Amino acid sequence: MFSGTGPSGGAAHSTSTGGGGGSPSDRGGPAPSASASVSTPASESTVARRLNGLDPHGDDAPSSQPATSFHCFISVCEKVESKGRTTYNEVADELVAEFSDPNINIDSPDPDNSSAQQYDEKNIRRRVYDALNVLMAMEIISKDKKEIQWRGLPKTSMNDIEELKTEVNGLKGRIDKKNAYLQDLQDQVRIVWSLVS
C-alpha cells in the first residue's frame, strides 16, 4: 500500500498480506500494462461507464455519508484515469477545490466558517488517500515513490463469466445435495426418537 506521509501529516505505513487471486482476471490473465492507460474526459471515463447506475448501499442506506464516500472514490478514479500519471497531492488539491466550491457542493457548510472548511478539506484528503489505497490494493493503479500511475480496470472476458456461472451452479448443486442429506438425517433422528419414546 502507501507508505510515507498520510493525509493528516503523520507517517503511515500499510502492507498487503493477501496473495490469493480474487478476481477472474487474476487467474492467469496478464496484468494490464502501463501503456494501456488512455487519457479520456472524466465525463466519458471507463470508471464512470463501468460503474454507471451502481448503488453500493441499496435503497435503504442513509444518503449523506456513504454516498459522499462513494462519490469521492469515483472522482478519484476518474482523476487518476484522466491524468494517467499524477501524485496524491495533485489529486487531493483538485478534489478539495472541486468539493469546496460553493457552486458545486450544495450541502457545503457556511463559507464564512473556516474551521468547518478546514475539517472538510482534511476529510476530503483522507478519503482521497483511502481511495488511492483501495485502488492500489486492487492493482488498478501503481505507485512509485510519489508518482501514481493508472494501470487500468481489470478485464472480464466472457470465458471468465461463464466459468463463474458454472462454479455458482456447481456450488448450488452441492448445497442442494447437502440440504437433502440434512433432511435425511433429520428424518432418521425423528424415527429413532419415535422408537425410543
Automatic annotation (TrEMBL):
Its main location: cytoplasm. It comes from the Eukaryota. Residues 65-152 form the E2F/DP family winged-helix DNA-binding domain. One of its GO terms (cellular component) is DRM complex. Residues 1-16, 24-46 have a biased composition (Low complexity). Residues 1-67 are annotated as: Disordered. One of its GO terms (molecular function) is DNA binding. It is found in: Cytoplasm; Nucleus. SUPFAM superfamilies: Winged helix' DNA-binding domain. Keywords: Cell cycle, Coiled coil, Cytoplasm, DNA-binding, Nucleus, Transcription, Transcription regulation. GO terms for biological process: regulation of cell cycle; regulation of DNA-templated transcription. Residues 161-188 form a coiled coil. InterPro entries: E2F_WHTH_DNA-bd_dom, Transcrpt_fac_DP, WH-like_DNA-bd_sf, WH_DNA-bd_sf. Belongs to the E2F/DP family. This is Transcription factor-like protein DPB. The gene is DPB_2.
